[in-house]
Amino acid sequence: NRRFVLASRPKGAPTPENFRFETVETPVPGDGEVLIRNRFLSLDPYMRGRMSDAKSYATPVEIDAVMGGGTVGVVKASNNPRFSEGDLVLAQGGWQDFSLSNGRDLRKLPPELDHPSYALSILGMPGFTAWHGLLKIGEPKAGETVVVAAASGPVGSIVGQIARLKGAKVIGIAGGPKKCRTVVETFGFDACLDHKDPGFAEKLKQAVPDGIDVYYENVGGKVFDAVLPLLNVHARVPVCGLIASYNATGLPDGPDRLPLLAGILLRQRIRMQGFIISDHYAGEFADFERDMAGWVKAGEVKIIEDVVDGLENAPDAFIGLLEGKNFGKLVVRIGED
Ligand code: NDP
């Protein structure tokens, strides 16, 4: 069983030295357990938080423990009556070839699934995150203007596509002209702006002549600075992620801008609300699945996957995700056997 464990906690951006590649015996399932061959591993920005021991909503990965992560795999041996050899399952298998589960965190997937890795993206956690944050907090209405960054990634691209289905005008923000072109041509956004362009803030202002009604926050940093003065009265801001600061070692320099933020929130009567998607599975996942399965089938919502071959490439791919090097949902193909 090849696997990556957390060797040390990053200071700032993670480096390859924070991970250690090991080969150990393949585990043997005990009573009630199943052995899973992991086929696809999802790499997600939240994993940066788990590498750190700072206070958070989830417990950190221990040093020398296997890096956690969502996986799609095949049951190889089962001592659990609910699962049989050959079942395709969604699991928390982590960065390794094989994993054990007591069955509680497993979901059986239909064996005929065209794209099993979609259970890690459009039909899974990132898709659900987009659906919940946009519809339950953002509440876009026809004719309103919705802005979302990381717009070629799984969460951002799905936010924009759902907002279009609800009749909103959708402006994406992404890193570079190639990503921006895809956001418009493949995902059907009305426009997309490059946050690396020196004239970005001014171009954003021109792109939203009626102001911004929903800003779906994925990144923070300079993008949020550009968005803040453009928010309309009664705008909604679902706070989903702040990836621009995940590698930060402290607060940014410069004047205290909290009074500016608080003043705009007050005068514009803005609702800004954070959420963690794991809180919402029990109550809403079934509704999401129904909506999204229909949209995917009808070709109304699409996803681009960035598939990296080989478990050994997971650390570099993950480090790149935090720098915007991925193009679409980042997934590692561990093996097909
Ligand atoms: P993506 O695959 O879109 O990858 C992250 C993207 O963020 C990068 O590709 C890059 O895109 C962009 N980015 C990185 N640094 C910066 C920066 N400094 N400024 C602007 N953009 C930057 O990720 P996901 O779709 O998986 O996740 C999107 C956000 O949603 C993340 O913040 C994540 O933490 C959050 N999230 C929150 C959840 C919750 O429960 N609240 C659940 C799931 C995700 P580009 O090159 O276009 O800039």
Explain this structure to me?
The structure is a single chain. Helices cover 27% and strands 24% of the residues. The chain has 337 residues and is α/β, with parallel strands linked by helices. It folds into two domains: 2-121 and 303-333, Quinone Oxidoreductase, Chain A, domain 1, CATH 3.90.180; 125-278, Rossmann fold (3-Layer(aba) Sandwich). Helix 6 links the parallel strand 11 (212-216) and strand 12. The two termini are 14 Å apart. The model has no long low-confidence stretch (mean pLDDT 97).
What is this structure's SSE topology?
Blueprint: E1 2-6, E2 19-23, E3 34-42, H1 46-50, E4 71-78, E5 88-91, E6 98-101, E7 107-108, H2 125-138, E8 145-149, H3 154-165, E9 169-174, H4 177-185, E10 191-194, H5 200-207, E11 212-216, H6 221-227, E12 231-239, H7 258-267, E13 271-274, H8 281-297, E14 305-309, H9 314-321, E15 329-333
Parallel strand pairs: 8-9, 8-11, 9-10, 11-12, 12-13, 14-15
Antiparallel strand pairs: 1-2, 3-4, 3-6, 3-15, 4-5, 5-7
The chain binds NADPH dihydro-nicotinamide-adenine-dinucleotide phosphate.
